[in-house]
Specification:
single chain, about 180 residues, alpha+beta, TATA-Binding Protein, 7-stranded antiparallel sheet, two-stranded antiparallel sheet, 3 helices, 11 strands, about 30% strand, elongated
């Protein structure tokens, strides 16, 4: 009887010591902290730590000046409204100006930080939330003023009043009729 009690005691000690080294199981319903951020592809767009990049849905291009633009996709187990609010705060800290937003099952936030624009698209799925971050370069207004007239020749865009596209001759092309 004594030997049996000693064997059971030693077995229990081994079991208890083995359980202490097991990793703890996290609560699947607990919201992770979104206050910690990291910088991913776009240097001035902070991403909450629970969100991880999805390389298969990401396309980022480097401009000649070294700035990056394109799409980077993220997913994580964060509630959509919490993520949207945190991104609003993080983007404002980086100097982005919120220009518009829409909240719903699919939400969007539009930002401007000259000469760039950012659009954040949020989508809540059954198991996680996805966030697509688009960063694009602003449009050079000088390029928009150039265009082609109806004859196919280059128009300087001066004096047309139509944003550079004209079917009527400009004032420099009008000839004076003599009587």
């Amino acid at each position: 009887m004594k030997i049996r009690a000693i064997v059971i005691g030693v077995a229990a000690a081994f079991l208890l010591s083995g359980c202490s080294s097991m990793p703890s199981i996290s609560n699947p319903f607990e919201q992770p902290s979104v206050s910690e951020t990291y910088i991913s592809q776009f240097r001035d767009v902070p991403i909450p730590a629970p969100m991880t990049s999805t390389p298969s849905e990401t396309l980022v291009t480097v401009a000649p000046d070294g700035s990056k633009f394109g799409l980077e996709s993220f997913s994580g187990r964060v509630e959509l409204t919490t993520l949207a609010n945190v991104m609003m705060q993080n983007m404002a800290r980086q100097g982005w100006k919120l220009r518009g937003s829409s909240v719903g099952v699919r939400s969007v936030q539009l930002y401007e930080k000259a000469p760039h624009y950012a659009a954040l698209f949020f989508r809540e799925n059954v198991m996680n939330t996805t966030m697509d971050v688009w960063v694009i370069n602003g449009v050079n207004v000088d390029i928009l003023s150039l265009g082609y007239d109806a004859s196919g020749s280059m128009d300087s865009g001066m004096g047309t009043g139509t944003g550079g596209f004209s079917s009527a001759p400009s004032s420099s092309q009008v000839t004076q009729l003599s009587e």
